[in-house]
Amino acid sequence: MPIVPDAKNWTWVLERSCPECGFDPESITYAAVPALAREYASRLSATLGRPDAAARPDDSTWSALEYAAHVRDVCRIFTYRAAVTARTEAVDPKVPGFGAKGVEADDGVPVFSNWDQDVTAIADRYGEQDPRKVAAELTDAAEAVARAFESVPEAALGNQARRSDGWVFTVESLAFYFLHDVIHHVYDVRG
Question: Please, what is the average pLDDT of the chain?
Answer without folding.
Answer: 92
